Amino acid sequence: MLSLVALSVPSTAAAESNPYGGVAVKAPGANETILTITKGKVVIKLSMKKLQAMKSSNLTINEPFVKKKQSFRAIKLSSLFRLAGIKGADKVETYALNDYLYTNTAANFISADGYLAIARSGKPIGYDEGGPIRIIFPNTSKWTNFEDPWNWSIKSMKVS
Amino acid sequence: MTNSDTPAPEGISFKTTFGQKLLAAGIILNLFVLSGFIFSSSQYAISESKIFTSAQSTATSIIFTQRETLAYTTRYAQWAAGVFTKRDVGIARALLAQRLNVINIDQTSTGGRATADYLSALRFSDSVLEKAPEGYLPSTLHDTYNKLSGSFIDSMLAESRKMVVAYQQELDATILASAKKRSSNTLQILAIFLLLVLQTSIFLIWGGLSFRRQYKTARRNLKKEADSLSIAIERLESAESEVKSLEELNARKNDFISTVNHELRTPLTSIIGYIDLLKEPAIKLSAVEYEKIISVIERNSGVLLDLIESILSLSSLDAKDQVSEYKEVDLLTIVKKNIFILTPQLSQKSISINLDEKALENSTILGNSGQVSLVVVNLLSNAVKFSPNGSQVDVRLSLEADGAEFNFVRFEVKDKGIGIPADEIPKLFTRFYRAKNAVDSHIEGTGLGLAIVAKILENHKAKIEVKSEINQGSTFVVIFPAFLGKVAQLISKNRVNVLNKAIIALRTAPAHELAPVSHEMGGAVGFYDLEKESELINEFNLWLIKNPLAQQEDLNQLKENLIDSLNHSYIVLSGQGSEMK
Fold first, then answer.
1. ipTM summary value
2. Residue range(s) of every CATH 1.20.1330 domain in chain B
3. How many beta carbons lie within 10 A of that of residue A28, not counting itself?
4. Which residues of chain A does B98 touch, with a Cβ-Cβ cutoff of 8 Å?
5. Residue B417, Cβ density class (10 Å: 0-12 exposed, 13-18 middle, ≥19 buried)
6. How many CA atoms lie within 13 A of A21 on its CB side?
7. pTM (2 decimals)?
8. What are phi and psi for residue B418, nearest 5 degrees?
9. How far apart are CA A46 and CA A80, in angstroms?
10. Domain limits of chain A?
11. Chain A residues touching residue B94 (CB < 8 angstroms)
12. Which H or E run contains B21?
């Protein structure tokens, strides 16, 4: 499945390795749940395969953590919220694999034009690069320089 | 007087000295320096703001690094205990790598701040993990990996804490350095500000004093200028007045010439006319007519002569300053001489002159005898001229006292003539003016006599008064200042004081001393020409001598009567009461 992802993005993108990286970690399986969205009794479990099947866009942004221009394939958060029936007034908690938490209303996430990145430079995003999925914002967003909502290695979204 | 006599006023301006300009330049320079320091201060504020922004970002990364380190080492230990898989540990390690790779605002990565021991322990953990089997560790390997993890976990945690402490120290040092710079900058601003205050104060005080001094000088100069202007105005006014007076003089001269011309022409025309008549052979004149013509010519010639003499006298009086020629003159002698000279005219009109000189003790005046004689003869001849035939002209000479010291000789001429209209009296002394009733009555005259009199009296500081009543007569009174000799002056000056002393002495003397006191005072008062008062005191003295046993009441009555009389004299002489009433 990893090879399928690689085929779906431009292969010309240069691979960038993390100088502080350690042992290689195998990417999650294509059908392995990597994002769980919960609103009340509604629980949406999404694998990379399902995410890749959703409508996505190519974004080139100034990544605020590594201070570099990077290209991502990403899904609008509004699409994911619709999927789970999340309304604008709902408070959405976003959890990372290391349990980092950022909470805000769905309306604010949407007005900030938030995206869920699923690939970078045509390749799966490594765990040491905030992958496999992460929240990003375009350069025009109100949160482009507000780093707290840029949740890396996100694993779940939950309406409290 | 030329313009150069008026001092030119100095210029009025306010100036700054070189020192003041230098000080002002110093103030401006310091203002620039102060602006520079204030700009630096704002730059320090921006720099500190950047430091704090950077610190927030970097500190967040470091804290998260510490958190991720804890998460990784915990996961590692749990893996070694068989709780998690190797992949789970790998994910935790990847998240730590992600954090270490964060580039902060200061463009350094978080991993760049990690100590060598930290990185060494991290690499060691990687090498251990690399060699470990996939999935969960079999229980047989738990002890081995527990020991291995124990060898670096503590080190990693300790080194991650060192990262925090090191950054804290670095931040403190940065903030301290910045604070020192700011402090230094603030001190510099304060120093420059104080220097500015000092310079400005000196400038203001110096300038204030300087301007005050210059203001005073300017005021002085303005005053000088005002004074100069006043002097110039006074001179201008004086010149205007002089021009005006010259114009008046010129007008008077023209009037005079015109009048003289007229006055001379009248008798001359008559004379020439009659001479032409005499020269005409065709006209035969009888002896009576001939004699009449000759008489007219003679009379007009006399008028002409009088006129010319009068004009010459006036011209002489106008031209000369007569004061230096004044001498002691006896007015009575002059009056008597002129009465004698007028004898023919008096006889012609059967007019007698009654001379009263009883009240005259001294008739000496200071003056020019010729001019005084001219005054006397003019007034006497006028009186004779205007008096009806057979009447009497009263002439009176007397001495007048004004207060205690000044005596005047009064010369009064009173006629019983036609009189002078009241409205014409002020004009009598104008040259060539003649009263209308005199002209109407065909009484001859030049109209210059009284003008000559007025001019002479003015020169002698004498006064003339005129009283007149139509058809009743006129009285001319001339008052000359009397000339007193040194003794007479002394007597005149002291007589009032002596009289006052006599009154006081008589009033205060005890009864038994009244006789000698009255004797002494009678003599003293007599010495000062107070004859009547001396007689009164002497009479009192004689009574005292004759009545040594007189009743006290009688004595007091007589004494009071005497003092009252003396007081009365004192009031008349001095114009005031005695010092002791």
1. 0.85
2. 18-213
3. 20
4. 18, 65, 127-130, 152-153
5. buried
6. 12
7. 0.48
8. -75, -15
9. 10
10. 45-159
11. 18, 21-22, 25, 126-128, 153
12. helix B18-80
Q: Backbone phi, then psi, for A33, in 5-degree steps?
A: -70, 125
State the DSSP code for A134. E
Q: B191 by DSSP, 3-state: which?
A: helix
3-state secondary structure of B565: helix
Nearest one of A84, A80, A78 to A113, comparing CA atoms: A78
- Domain B18-213 fold is f41 fragment of flagellin, N-terminal domain (1.20.1330)
In terms of CA atoms, which chain B residue is nearest residue A99? B71
Classify the phi-psi angles of A14: left when phi > 0, otherwise alpha if psi is within -120 to 50, otherwise beta.
beta
| CATH top-level class of A45-159 | alpha beta
Based on the number of CB atoms within 10 Å of its own CB, is B378 exposed (0-12), middle (13-18) or buried (19 or more)? buried
Residue B12: what pLDDT? 57
Q: Are B280 and B272 in contact (CB under 8 A)?
A: no
Q: What is the CATH number of domain B326-481?
A: 3.30.565.10
Instruction: Classify B576 as helix, strand or coil.
Output: coil
As given in the structure block, the two tokens for residue B392 are: 């009497």
pLDDT per residue as tens digits for the range B473-517: 999 999 988 877 666 666 767 778 888 888 988 888 888 888 888
d(CA B537, CA B506): 9
pLDDT, averaged across chain B: 85
C-alpha atoms less than 13 angstroms from C-alpha of B354 in its C-beta half-sphere: 9
Most confident of A57-61, B275-279, B300-304: A57-61
Q: Under DSSP, is residue B473 helix (H, G, I), strand (E, B) or coil?
A: strand
Identity of the residue numbered B410: R
Rounded CA gap, B98 and B100, in Å?
A: 6
DSSP state of B103: B
Strand ordering across the sheet containing A91-96? A42-47, A33-39, A154-159, A91-96, A101-105
Residues of B with CB under 8 A from a CB of A: 67-68, 71, 86-87, 90-98, 100-103, 107, 109, 111, 122, 125-126, 129-130
